[in-house]
Amino acid sequence: MPQKPIVYDAPTPEPRATTVEAIQAEILERLIYSIGKDPIVARPHDWLAATILTVRDRVMDRWMESSRETWRSSQKRVYYLSLEFLIGRLMRDAMSNVGLIEPVRDALKNLNVDLGDLVNLEPDAALGNGGLGRLAACFLESMSSVKIPAYGYGIRYVHGLFRQEMSEGWQVELPEEWLAHGNPWEFERRESAYEIGFGGSVEPVIDPDGIERQEWRPNDHVMAVAFDTPIVGWRGARVNTLRLWSAQPIDPILLDKFNSGDHIGALEESSRAEAITRVLYPADSTAAGQELRLRQEFFFSSASLQDIVRRHLQQYDELDSLPDKVAIQLNDTHPAISICEMMRILLDVHGLEWAHAWKLSRGVFGYTNHTLLPEALESWPVALLERLLPRHMQIIYAINAEVLTEARQRAQFTDGQIANVSLIDENGGRRVRMGQLAFVGSHSTNGVSALHTELMKKTVFSDLHRLYPERINNKTNGITPRRWLMQCNPGLTKLITDRIGPEFLDNIDLLQGLNAHADDQNFQKQFAAVKRDNKVRLAKVIKDRLGINVSPDAMFDVQIKRIHEYKRQLLNIIQTVAAYDEIRAHPERDWVPRVKIFAGKAAPGYWNAKLTIKLINDVAKTINNDPSVRGLLKVVFLPNYNVSLAEVIVPAADLSEQISTAGMEASGTGNMKFMANGAVTIGTMDGANVEMHKEVGDDNIVIFGLRTEEVNEKRSTSEVPRSSIDASPRLMEALESISSGVFSPDDPNRYRDLIGGLYDHDWFMVARDFDAYVAAQSKVDKLWSDPRRWSSMAIKNTARVGYFSSDRTIRQYAEDIWGVSVPET
């Protein structure tokens, strides 16, 4: 049937009133008629659902109008493809961005309900692992705030990343049940469902015009069904869409099997389909796990591209304008298979010639690289791709042939350079390099900090950079100041507003006005009082969750991030052991009281990361229960780190630990969140720390350790790490106490291999950077002992965080990569 024309100005209801009385009446109406509860017996979760629906209704008008405006104006759309979206709780974010916090709070108060209690009840969407997913969420919010028409595309994980609990100090992974009671923010779009194929064969077919084309005939199919969530921009400037795909079977039950008595086998197709969107990052240590990950990546990539092309044709009825109307950003290599899928759609479905399709495809794609770690740059066995996605493997070979021919003929590459740029890695089993595919299939490849981008040119993509020298560019990451300052730290936001006015809420660069007040003693006291209030709140969380009492007057020294060897939680905890030894050996000294706060999840199969968590908990148990320390040092590990927990920890931090091995952290965004909230950074010259150092100046950040070139030099020379240990009695003593079982009397050998690695290779420079780290921590103690100096540093960090707003990052993407015009603020 012919599709009805789109009506851009269909009638809509009048916008809903935002008075306290109107909101109160609607919450009651929703409670009774949507939730089905009498207010007399309603439980907190009932009030939460009713409140979310009331707020959501006031977002809908803006959502509809944003979509209509894009259709009316034929604006170019941005599509952000990411396997992760750590969006966090949405109710407070939406209320804040459309100015509803106070009327909703007052309406609930009239109903004897506390808004704060409800906010803490909302599930934290478990759709990501760490910085990658949180960056994607910040970018979506910023795209709405700066009025860029955009969709985020991802997977609607039923369980997402695991829920982390502790059992005798060990990490235990449990399912994250964020969808157990439904999600009132989302809308199922049954009309936006696409068939996704796997396996099968590729057959040549002859078109009516006599041209031979390839036709993929999959033998395994699932349906991708869309669920949409509104993403609200600041002051409701625009509401964009996060579209998540849920995998569903074509036939939910095989009745012939069921009726024959095979009741389990009858559900086999359902189980296979639903497994695709069951869990984020299934373990890939087995062949089955690898296949499931590839299925996930192709599933959401194919569904997203089918949706994008369908929307484009619906409006423009031709494909030549794709690069003018569509910008697709690949967030890391997870959606890199999209390049092959776009080519398949253009070649096989719409009949374009190769050169035409390749030009259009490269014109729409941009690729963001997030890592220089070889193990994190995805690659897939050729045999797996040939079996699961045979047509896409053909396209990969064809792309590779074109790239290698160009490299040989135009650039006169050597055999070694040809091997480096090839999409197929021939060493140790043939594998497809997804980073190379994303690079050659995009018109832009960007890094996420200045240092990372330069290293990318010199390391992982050095020969591709020689072949395409115009393609690599930098877009330093950013964070949304709405969630990571205004919402998570309302006390500081009010203090800043009182001091420099509210204009910074709309232009975060105006925080620079605080520079003039950094040495004002009265303002310093007010700033410190806000920080202390936040520390009191975090101390209560620590007490409630761990039963550990900590003093808000101690320095809160915080390292919260994914547990990984290059992030060097091990360096932090070894220094903590050395400090513990010093405090006991010299009780007469004037020690600065510290609370060492850790949080983060380790990948289920990452043994050294899980062992590091156990070590932190073992050290904490010993130190926290030793009366000779006199409370001068406490260590806590808060389990199940997520966005909501970060929103409590970040405003309370005094010291931000950003101590990754130089050259290994692409950017970091946690460092920016701490900076915004007035924490002082101790860190290496790595990732965005380099640019933070430039913004705040040498006097307002504590930098230590080897630089990137020094790390590379030490890795390539015969200098042995043991020499660093032998030269440092404090380090030697700390390592000996850990490896000999002082902190693990139940298993004295538990940490012998973990510590032994520092003697043998020390790839992450833990031993080599130890003394520099200790000296930097001593400098921190001296700075902390001068409250006026410390307060000045903290205030200047907040004042100079404007550059690290994701609004700035998004504007740069729009101008340099997407070709999208951004309205003036």
Write the layout of secondary structure elements.
Elements: H1 20-33, H2 44-73, E1 77-81, H3 91-97, H4 101-110, H5 115-119, H6 131-145, E2 150-155, E3 163-167, E4 170-174, E5 187-198, E6 201-206, E7 212-217, E8 220-232, E9 239-249, H7 255-259, H8 268-275, H9 287-316, H10 322-325, E10 326-331, H11 338-349, H12 354-364, E11 365-368, E12 379-381, H13 382-388, H14 390-409, H15 415-421, E13 424-425, E14 431-433, H16 434-440, E15 444-447, H17 450-458, H18 462-467, E16 472-474, H19 481-487, H20 490-500, H21 521-546, E17 555-560, H22 569-585, E18 594-599, H23 607-624, E19 633-637, H24 643-649, E20 655-658, H25 670-676, E21 680-683, H26 689-696, E22 702-703, H27 708-716, H28 722-726, H29 729-739, H30 752-760, H31 770-784, H32 787-799, H33 806-818
Parallel strand pairs: 1-2, 1-10, 2-9, 10-11, 11-15, 15-16, 17-18, 17-20, 18-19, 20-21, 21-22
Antiparallel strand pairs: 3-4, 5-8, 6-7, 8-9, 12-14, 13-14
Organism: Devosia rhodophyticola
Function: Allosteric enzyme that catalyzes the rate-limiting step in glycogen catabolism, the phosphorolytic cleavage of glycogen to produce glucose-1-phosphate, and plays a central role in maintaining cellular and organismal glucose homeostasis.
EC number: 2.4.1.1
